[in-house]
Write a structure and sequence with these properties.
It is a single chain. The chain has a six-stranded antiparallel sheet, with no helix packed on it. It has 279 residues and is of the alpha+beta class. It is 42% helix and 18% strand. The protein has two domains: 82 residues, Phosphorylase Kinase, domain 1, CATH 3.30.200; 174 residues, Orthogonal Bundle (Transferase(Phosphotransferase), domain 1), CATH 1.10.510.10. Helix 6 crosses helix 8. The protein is built from nine helices and nine strands. The longest helix is centred in the last third of the chain and has 31 residues.
């Protein structure tokens, strides 16, 4: 059985949700901003493409959602609803302000970069401790909320989406570790993707395949952070998975140590500037 779905229109209702606008389109689904007319809150609705939602995919998705449903963490965005409404399969989340992908196109302070980096790692480390690989770590899957709170989304969806979309010959390969692109994901694959995002935020450039060190913009990274932070990112981005951190938990531990050294370095630089001005 294949569930037929077409693009939704503004003001169209799907169950209790009224469509307000389309937020984006990907290889697996379209995403809409919608109003929950019962609870009176705005949500993000993910509606998988018609050619993707068949019995096999739905079975895989249900299995993944059952596993992901046990994740409760301040940096992980839970599902509000996943199921059929008006013969359409919809997945509902709390609606954020924007995505990390939107945010990194604008100027970021070093404090914000370090804060976002820590939140990304804490979310993924929690998942890894729960024996869950995300499989699609990318800026679009980190949603920003008030107070600069980042939440990782698409748990339970990412694995099914990646497998299905790869079969269609598309997908976000640019964010994947080399072994993951060949169908062999692990905790180390999520680590690799986190390293790419941190590198992008600190250099201003996306690392490119084959991800050989040094990346473009390395001098800018070195000027901004302690050498130990550079080493953390380099290890995370190793093309050979055996040379990476074993999981996000191990990477988080190294990141926090490097963050403290970076903050002390910045404080020392500010003190020197103040002393020179006073002289």
């Amino acid at each position: 059985m294949i569930i037929r779905m077409s693009a939704l229109k503004v003001r169209q209702k799907v169950g209790k949700y009224r469509i307000e606008r389309r937020l984006g389109q990907g290889g697996f689904a379209d995403v809409y901003a919608a109003m929950d007319t019962i609870e009176g809150i705005r949500v993000a609705l993910k509606v998988p493409h018609a050619k993707i939602v068949d019995d096999h995919v739905l079975k895989d998705f249900r299995n993944e959602v059952r596993v992901a449903a046990r994740l409760e963490h301040p940096n992980i965005l839970p599902l509000r609803f996943a199921g059929f409404m008006d013969e359409k399969f919809v997945i509902a989340f709390q609606l954020g302000e924007n995505t990390l992908s939107d945010r990194i196109t604008k100027r970021l302070s070093l404090h914000s970069i370090l804060d976002y980096g820590q939140q990304m790692l804490e979310a993924t480390a929690y998942a890894h401790r729960s024996k869950i690989i995300h499989c699609d770590i990318k800026p679009e899957n980190f949603i920003l909320f008030s107070g600069n709170r980042l939440k990782l989304t698409d748990f339970g969806i990412a694995k099914v989406a990646q497998k299905t979309v790869r079969g269609a010959g598309t997908g976000t390969i640019g964010y994947m570790a080399p072994e993951q692109a060949m169908g062999k994901p692990s905790f180390r694959s999520d680590v690799f993707s986190l390293g790419l995002i941190l590198c992008r935020m600190l250099t201003g450039y996306w690392p490119e395949y084959p991800y050989e060190w040094p990346p473009k913009g390395l001098s800018r990274m070195r000027a901004r952070v302690h050498a130990e932070m550079v080493a953390v990112i380099r290890r995370a981005m190793e093309p050979n998975p055996r040379k990476r951190f074993r999981d996000a938990d191990q990477m988080l531990e190294a990141f926090l140590k490097a963050r403290r050294k970076t903050e002390r370095l910045l404080a020392s630089r500010r003190k020197k500037k103040t002393t020179r001005r006073a002289a």
